[in-house]
Amino acid sequence: MSSLSRELVFLILQFLDEEKFKETVHKLEQESGFYFNMKYFEEQVQSGEWDEVERYLSGFTKVDDNRYSMKIFFEIRKQKYLEALDKQDRARAVEILVKDLKVFSSFNEELYKEITQLLTLDNFRENEQLSKYGDTKSARNIMLLELKKLIEANPLFREKLTFPTLKASRLRTLINQSLNWQHQLCKNPRPNPDIKTLFVDHTCQPPNGTRAAPPPNNPLVGGLPKGGAFPSLGTHSPFQPAAPPSATSLAGWMANSNTPAPHPAVAPGSATLAGPPNPGPLLKRPRTPPINATAMDYQSADSEHLLKRSRPVMQTVDEVNYAGSSLPQSSDDLPKMLARTLNQGSCVMSMDFHPVQQTILLVGTNVGEIGIWEVGSKERLTQRAFKVWDISVCSMPMQAALVKDPVVAVNRTMWSPDGTLLGVAFSKHIVHLYSYHLGGDLRPHREIDAHIGSVNDIAFSHPNKQLSIITCGDDKTIKVWDASTGHKQYTFEGHDAAVYSVCPHHKENIQFIFSTAVDGKIKAWLYDHLGSRVDYDAPGHWCTTMAYSADGTRLFSCGTSKEGESFLVEWNESEGAIKRAYSGFRKRSSNVVQFDTTKNRFLAAGDEFLIKFWDMDNASVLTSTDAEGGLPASPRLRFNKEGSLLAVTTNDNGIKILCNSDGLRLLRTFESRAFEGGKLFIDASVTSKTTGVTQPVAVSAPSGPIVGALPPAGSIAATVSRLIYTNSGVAILALASNAVHKLWKWQRNERNMSGKASASIAPQLWQPSSGILMTNDISETNPEEAVPCIALSKNDSYVMSASGGKISLFNMMTFKVMTTFMPPPPAATFLAFHPQDNNIIAIGMEDSTIQIYNVQVDEVKSKLKGHSKKISGLAFSNALNVLVSSGADSQVIVWSIDGWEKRRTKAIQIPAGRGSPSATGDTKVQFHNDHIRLLVVHETQLAIYDASKLERVRQWVPRDPFTSTLSAATYSCDSQLVYAGFSDGSVGVMDGESLLPRCRVAPSAYISQGIGSANIYPLVIAVHPSESLQFALGLSDGSVQVLEPLETEGKWGTGPSSDNGAVVSTPSSSAVGNQNSEQAAR
């Protein structure tokens, strides 16, 4: 059921409750399963209505759904059984025992036998465990407390125990608003309309009692919404279902995708206000409705009198603001602040931000050049001039065109959805595909002689789950090519003029392409050979581009006529009609106006030497900016994926980067990385704020280094096996080798207004009032020999953990065990939550398998096999939709999340002189914030891989002064640094790009010197979730220490040095471990 249907159920529940339909309310609660009414449930339990109690529960859970559900039903049936015994109703008790309690015997036969033996007692209170059973009322109340705890802990009741906050009579209000809106559209509105029914749309009859037909040229008629124009409320809707869309609408041709449709233009609609349009006349006389309306939401300029006159007063009808007159939303989220200016050197024709690396901008120019910019550092990463890669395979028309006029321009540049490929469409015949690698490395991938004449547009799509590139050109065709091989898959013919743009999309499982031509025709195609499915006239009848909102639910187009009149509109796909026309363009544009969408909320277009912005739900211009001047009359523009940056072309062959507050923070992360290479490698040192004594320590306090400043009682008294910050950044959770967890919290006070973790303020060891310890299951295991693992939920409310025994789920507030599961063998060795679903957990096992476990249903969904030794690392990538695993076999494997099949595998290469090439050892993996780059940590090396291809792009091998093996390493929260611990106690701070050391923290900086101190070193490292310069060390002596640089320094070290480790920049096996093959990253 859709979210709108779910909300409708809540509205109906509120209505029924207000109207006192009590039985119906609870029936709907139970049948929909959306809201569990705890108060009603308590009333039924306290009154002993056991049949109704179980019937109501059945709408939300069944006996065997999970252990919580089983316990709930058992407690209810046990109470029913005891009450029958208490009444001396043995026949009823036997019936309950056989019919209701027998199901539990398969799970606990001994308990069932014990319950059965109660029949032999004159008074069941003779049983020791039931000796304190009081009267029926108190017993029910005691049981009810237990049931409430079980229901609240049961994941099946999650988000079902709270009724949404609604204003009183919300459903009535919505109906009144609808009537008010319908009354606004009446041709002859009456001051006091007589509303007699809700079954049909409201209309006011003319004074003479007859109904006047609207004039045939009234565009209001064509703009009225029909049933299909609104989102369906689902099968549970009490309203009449909408008529299915006709085969000629944008939605209808998909519903009838097996049959090619005729080609009518956008139809003006029916001559009645309430009924659906008659498709017959539309097929005979296709027309496009006028779009020069200044109002919106189906109101037009011809109906301006409707907007100007005062609204009639309607009794019991709430006032409602229409979209055309509503206040515009805030424009604070729009990128309007000038942050960067880039000099491309030639006129920019096309731009596209990388879909994952938000500050990488691809640019194409009028002289055939393409360039890639890192807009954060204002660095041009690469530039390529146009040239034919292999003239021998080019067609004769193309060769003749190049000889006649060698000047070639870029018409369009675009990244593939995952950012691993980019496509370039040129003004003569050719499309180039490049593979993109980290650092701006471009490699030719495919050269396609695509069209005769200009290639006007390109786009990527995934028909048949295979990456394809779509092109269109002056030869009036659209073509689809295999992006991997360059082979042609489809050719679509049917346009009568050059094809100007393409827009691929999909609805559910239907893949399709919109195309526009310079004669103003819009066509739609499925990936078959049956011709176009629709044929519409675009506003302006010339060059038009189309685009969907980011969530794929709203379709927009922008174009300019030959006379220079520009049109930006939203389409109603269900009706094949224009839903909204946006105003604010100047009367004559010298060029085709370009546009873009962002955040499912805003539109932007370049016009009148400005960037103009619209709220998608308002036809009037929301705001505009001139980007501090220098823009052309119709500037080109492009948002990044998050909408925090906007690239705009300038008059002087440059690009301006505009940003909002989020974009500014993103760009500033690159400013801190502007360092000089080759500076001296130094230890991090700070000065004590109280004594003025310089000491080689990253953090200090009057009594010594501030590393959490934990008192001896706060020490774990065992080695720290796992360490994590809470996601809120206010606490640190440690798991020791003895299976005990410790939680340190920072308090909000005058010294620490934010309450977040800080190296300059000591935290408190926190425990619940009960004083219990959070301890993992260690039955039949030795925790000192086990491989512990831990994972924290996103909201910090619970932690999942194991120390060789069962996996335990703890409540972080009470430290109580909520549940345990998956007893060994094999034991769990690594845990990772699925990024989109907290109910799905990837569990690495001691037997080298990975189990994909669904907590909600207590079931293993998949078991992944590929490693030969225990799993030591797991990491999910949102961008690539993959899970990466690493093991003690030094193997790294990439798994697809969709089907959990293995995609790629690679053994890490052991550097020369540090063990045999086949040496093994625990390998850890962690994704960079871009979810493309993968940090791989092994005791012999740090390495960065491009996870999309599983190719190594960086490797760092320790050397003096890092003379020992790596013990732990992790990215900083912004991925700009890597913190690495070594078995001699030192800590290295590395650059996140090059892996070259920036500074070294000596052991004496944070370890008190004394007996045994030489054997203390970091076993684990955790990083603060929002403070990139703060990290914590879990040490082999059981202590936890927090480090951050002195405030006056504000950073770790001054820059990377190439003299402190071998860095290999290319995946060449011969270069690995070669100490003379050091290469600094750019």
UniProtKB/TrEMBL annotation:
This is Uncharacterized protein. It comes from Diphasiastrum complanatum.
